[in-house]
Amino acid sequence: MGLASSSLTIVQPLHSLPSLLAIRDLRAAVLAARKRNAQRDEPQALLAVDPLAALRALRLASAPVWAPARSPESLPELVATLGSPAIMRLLDVPSVDVDRTSGIRALWLHSIATACAAEQLARRSGAARPEQAYFRGLLRDLGPWLQQLGIHHDGARPDWSSDDLVRLWRLPLRAEDSAPTGPGPASDGTPQSAQHPIDPLAWVRLAPEELVDAADLLATLAGFEHPTAPGPAMPADASLDEVIEELRRDVDARLARVGLNVELVRAPRQVPEDERTLFAGNVETNLTDLVARLLDCREAPSYSAAATLGTAAALRFLDFDRAFMVTWNPACRRVWVRAKSDLTELGLVRRGVRPTDRENDTLAEAQRTGEARMLVRGDPRDGLCGAIAADRALVVPVRTTQRLPSFLVVDRAATARLLDVPKDGANARVLAGFMSVLIEILELRLRRSRAERNGTIAGLTGLANRRVGIFTLEHALASAKRTQRPLCVMMIDLDEFKSLNDTYGHLVGDHALRVTSSVLRRTVRSSDLVCRYGGEEFLVILPETEAEDATILATRLFTAVAEAGKAHGLPITCSIGLSSLRTEDSLDGLVGRADSALYASKSRGRNRFSADTE
Predict the structure, then answer these.
(1) How confident is the model over 411-428, as pLDDT tens digits?
(2) Is the CA virtual torsion 585, 591, 596, 601 positive or negative?
(3) Quick one: how far is CA 430 from the chain centroid?
(4) What CATH fold (topology level) applies to the domain 13-178+188-266?
(5) Pairing, β 406-411 against β 322-329
(6) CATH class assigned to 466-612
(7) Catalytic residue from among 536, 544, 548, 584
(8) Rounded to two decimals, what is the model's pTM?
(9) Architecture of domain 287-450 in CATH?
């Protein structure tokens, strides 16, 4: 069976048993141990004895959608990459019956023993970091694991290899890391057991790539055999016995940390069904709370806030493991992941993702019908599912009338639970509808804000317009007369502005206005107001400013404007007229005297200021 025609077993090989700790009798033992004594580093301790959960965690941490980062090479790095909340969600899966789990249990013990042996050999030899060796040993038997899961799922062995899954899932493993192991002939015809030296002191001198092979053999010699392969016959050796006993103690210690032991794992037993979760905080679908929460959050301040609110609600109220907000460009057939909620702090990659042909068709169908559709990973290329490391995901349209329609994508990749298209699709559709409303409310608010801004701001310069300037001056004048505080006003006009426009063109003239506005804005105080009074004229209102201080500021202003003109290679200068408030002044009188002072500056040669003050 090729990857292009992947079946459900290939697409979701872990869905029938996403975690070894989900086996009912083992789960009961772990729950009992947690009730007696909770461990502070519990997520990592549980991952250390659960190869299937570690495999899913590695896949999620290695997804191409994340901003470039080094793939985790040990369990501590994996927990640090995803974070404890994501690991807890990943481990918290529904329990399953113990039927047909004998082979899985035996392989489980072999994997833990291989990991412990690899850690032990790495510590003695220094050939690899012990925690890295443990991780590679734990995932050593990927091939046999997938075979056992096929048997557990439908009683048949899959006709595809672990190498297919390594490539399809983009796991950061080499082919030899995931190759099936067990006794068998070597390429030169010698028994596999004879390929490794018996002396453990020789094993510790192995190269890093051989270390896990040696650990695999040591695990078998310690009695933790593959379920279908007898252990190799080995001669008695005192030093070997010592290493084997140490390995058995390590395996016992690893299991004891989570409330298990070797005999408990080996012997299946029936226990009452217990649907308690491994971790507190597990949620069930609750549309009532979802609607109430979103109604309380109608005032999202930005698009990113609305997207984050919606994707977080998918986890909190709808029992999805992850949620993504994406935009799709049908013309170039690319998708951009804009926001996500998955309980991790991983950043999103900024480049677009190229969906597969089948995924593009699914997006188009969802846009056309307005209903939820299933995205399926069945193509060797990455596509959208490959980018987010999901085998199946629901896609729901959020806003489809724009040039770049947006969608909500949700999955249960962390817990490997199957999606129910009618039920989960309907719930996700309710959430997408609310997200659409949130975005529409935000757009209305932004349009209103822009309209208000356009009514008060001069578009070219970004300064307040004349209407705002006059309104502000009226209030400043009334306040100054009431409190007997000083008030000054400046009228500023660009020199020879018509000549500049005629010589250099109106675009350069506009640039001169922007340069002057920038100089005025950054030179005055935050309590002062600069407005564009007309064409090339500006009004500056200086509350609580004495005439003497205003003259100093006027000098700084016309000097700064001239220097900015030189910096831009333009003949920009300005003339300034200054007036200070008198007892009998009205608004027209105060502005009129500033205007008269301005014309005095013009008649005296420009690029200067004149004052009409007491």
Answers:
(1) 998 988 888 889 999 989
(2) positive
(3) 23
(4) Hypothetical protein af1432 (1.10.3210)
(5) antiparallel
(6) alpha beta
(7) 536
(8) 0.69
(9) 2-Layer Sandwich (3.30)
